[in-house]
Amino acid sequence: MLETFIFVVLPYLSIAIALFVTPYRYFSSKLDWSAFSTQFLERKTLYWGSVPWHYGVVLILVGHIIGFLFPSTVSAALSGISAIVALESIALALGLLTLVGSIILLIRRASGIIRAVTGYADWILLFLILLQATTGVYMGIFVRWGMEWYLYTAVPWLYSLLTLNPQIGYVVGLPFVFKLHVIGAFLILAVLPFTKLVHILFFPLSYIRDPPILYRWVTRIKGK
Ligand code: HEM
How far, in Å, from the CA of 28 to the mean position of ligand 1? Predict the structure, then answer.
């Protein structure tokens, strides 16, 4: 019952929320379709949190997607133990970058002036990305070799969801931490339209032509 909820109900519910609420938000309140910048309030910690987090998570997600789209190519690439160890080490380094970045971003939100401009949605999102990075890195270290077993378990299950013929047999036997990772992934998808994460769907191509924005303080804040 719980397995059906995690591997069937939650994914479809999250996909439905993301598919229907996202366009609704876009057309009903286009102006808040962005990640509100707090960079002008605090930028040093933001740099040390945001840069590693973005580099880590984007490359990790590209890895997840490549494994999903080209399972047989990835399987062939992982045919020798040295290739597995090398690629798993790179993934682990990127996972740790994501984890450290999310911890720094969370600490930044909890302190000083940034706390005052942090809403429930920001907290929920930050805790979810921390959960995602923690469970991912945990698997990278303790449930070896994720890159390999992902191809024969998670990938066919995800395909079965896409073809509307869910086959949870591929994943029910996987460890609890994998289930937490899946719950985290689909909760992130479900909260996407309600949080600043929605900015990942917006490609500000016109910015390339726009002049850069210059912030100027009218009164200088101490220590900035
Ligand atoms: C249903 C969707 C997902 C599945 C089935 C999945 C599966 C996995 C697996 C099996 C690993 C272990 C890889 C290894 O041992 O090298 C992993 C690692 C990881 N995942 Fe996911 N993942 C999903 C979604 C996500 C999402 C949405 C994020 C981020 C927002 C994410 C972030 C990570 C991170 C940071 C790691 C750590 C990489 C490492 O240290 O090796 N995952 N994931």
Answer: 33
